[in-house]
Amino acid sequence: MNRIAAAMAFAGLLTVAAPAAWADQPGADWMPAAQVKEKLMGLGYTSITAFEADDGHWEGEGMKNGKKMQFHADPKTGAIMSEKPDH
């Protein structure tokens, strides 16, 4: 009985953990990274120093108006969802 319970618990962990790991990969319907970066440059970023898929959106750092900024961008449109100075 303990083996069955342990196997079921392990299977449950795999079910919960797997989607979390996939959240750090761009979805099939996401705007390509290069296009998002181009859009960000058009919105005032002069450089993008970090950029990755994270928790269901694009996330990164770059320079805007002479300040180092952190941003989150919509995965499908590339629109800035949030940005703040990176201290």
TrEMBL record:
The keyword Signal applies. The keyword Signal applies. InterPro entries: PepSY. Keywords: Signal. Residues 61-87 are annotated as: Disordered. Residues 8-84 form the PepSY domain. Residues 1-23 form the signal peptide. Pfam families: PepSY_2. This is PepSY domain-containing protein. It comes from Lichenibacterium ramalinae.
